[in-house]
């Protein structure tokens, strides 16, 4: 009887590590199932629902581009794209789906890594809530130019006067597109170092004569909030004065995809600049 008990104990001691490894394997496979080859194209990813509190905590905890990218990506994945806390466990994704993980990582970098400023500075004696307001209208229906959805976020000033509010670049980057669009009026598009395309539309005017390919710095004035667009060049007054902000990325080098700027703007409220104007 003692011999059988001893054999059973030895067998159990032999199997226990294997059972632990199997359990870990199953858990990691389940975790990795959140990640698909097309995750960057999903509505959950495009929402970019990172709270301003988590963004601030993220910035405090990281000291390099790699750390920032990994913690952001795993936080969004482990929180099923609507996270409530930071989570840095990436082992399962690297083990089972490394390419999909790094594709997603690059997409998050393009949106978040180069951000340095809210796009509209406020006056020295004001708080942001006294000056600027905006809502989450990403994906809302639009009709001018045909049935479509709103691919950005509209920011309005308490002073509804064309040319009153400066519009500044949220990132360093290079001017990729500039000039008139029937939908966007006078617009300017900046490509940031990590690949995000930041689109500022309905400007009343530009700060200066910009050229395609010209470098700009975060905080540099690009132009002034206006109400241009919805017609031939120079058309204005068809809608209230506002800034349309769009953010686009190129997932896996494919056609540009819009993402929701709303949570980005909320995170950048703590980085609003104060100017005298």
Features:
single chain, 277 residues, alpha+beta, 10-stranded antiparallel beta sheet, two-stranded parallel sheet, 8 helices, 14 strands
In a nutshell, what does this entry contain?
β8 and β9 form a beta hairpin. With 277 residues, the protein is α+β, with helices and mostly antiparallel strands.
Poorly predicted runs are none
Q: From the alpha-carbon coordinates, what is the Rg to the nearest angstrom?
A: 24 Å
| Number of distinct helices | 8
Ends apart, CA distance between termini = 92 Å
Shape: elongated
| Beta strand % | 15-25%
Structural class, please?
Answer: alpha+beta
Number of strands: 14
Give the mean pLDDT. Answer: 89
Order of helices and strands: HHHHHHEHEEEEEEEEEEEEHE
